[in-house]
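[job 4417] fold queue: 2 targets
>>> target A
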Amino acid sequence: MIFGPVAGVLARRIGARIPAIIACVVMIGVGIGFALATPHYSWQLFGVLNGLFGIGFGLFFAAASILMVDALPEEQRGIGSGMLGVTIGIGSAVGAAIMAAFQSANPINAEVSAMGRGATQPIPQVFADQGYVLTFWVMSGLALVSLIMRHGRRPSTAGIVH
């Protein structure tokens, strides 16, 4: 709620590309932080990481919309907004699928022994930390790849005339 308008102000002054890059760097750092912090279970650390993620999230969504509007001609901006929403939705769905795959591959196993016999049985839908850690590493890596990709377009200026 706070950093969406901050991104708008920054976009008017320096362009939306820099807030978008800052947002990606913050979210990559938070993903790595979650991957490293998951086994330690400190609610204070998770609170700080979630707060930082909120900063990156607010900066990104404001900057992404501004960049999209600036990159398209006026008559295509409605279609572009729809495509931005669909792209974000697809990214969320793919991320959720990746997370579900890692979690399903890392269930908690219960060891039961009775009358001298033992058995190990996975508990359905209860996941070990390793699934979350792998998810944070993969998502951070994918975000880093998207940050360093060169696509050949000139950078957007968010309407700033130089």
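>>> target B
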Amino acid sequence: MNKKTKCYAKSYDLYSGSTEFYLEVGDILFFETEDRQVRAHTENQLYTTHQRLYELEENLPIEFIRISKSCIVNVNKILALTKSLSNCLVQFQNLHKQVYASRRYYKSLQ
């Protein structure tokens, strides 16, 4: 019996200006779409990628989950979740940036 196994990239090509960086996937806190660009956030830097969120979602390791139409987070980097009626605020370790998980994706985040 042949089982297909997913092959996850250990690093991703990310860009800051005209410079290309190769970052370990574990260093990335989250990916989000903003102004028609997919951005990768680390503790200290903001990068862009040429991949779309759905492409990243298919290729990222299991610790990355989609929490809204515009965001995929690294669950190992989450500091706190604050739930409200309409969504859930996600806070990260060592970062002031926050994102929201929609109700649709909240169960998978728990």
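[job 4417] complete. Note on B: Residues 1-7 have pLDDT under 50 and may be disordered.
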